Amino acid sequence: RMLxxxxxxxxxxxxxxxxxxxxxxxxxxxxLRARTLGNSPSALKGSLQEVHSEEWLRKQLCYLSExxxxxxxxxxxxxxxxxxxxxxxxxxxxxxxxWQPT
Length: 102
Hints:
Strand content: 5-15%
Number of strands: 2
Strand order of the largest sheet: 1-2
Low-confidence stretches: none
Largest sheet: 2 strands, antiparallel
Shape: elongated
Structural class: mainly alpha
């Protein structure tokens, strides 16, 4: 009901399809539409894993770039280096099913 109160332009920018019980990302809805064209469930799973791995790599690159920038800033002020935590591998996240939508 809340989305019906919004203008069409704002509603189109909303990133999720909502029902009375569930929500689904628009990108997943688009992939599910392709599924109805005769693609197999395993093709859909592969597409979702590909999208997820691209996003995971993009976020990992951003994190490591910020760590590098931070380290250079510490060196410029002759401060001691801070330690960064080890990032989990993508395969370990998939094996344990710990993927969390963002």
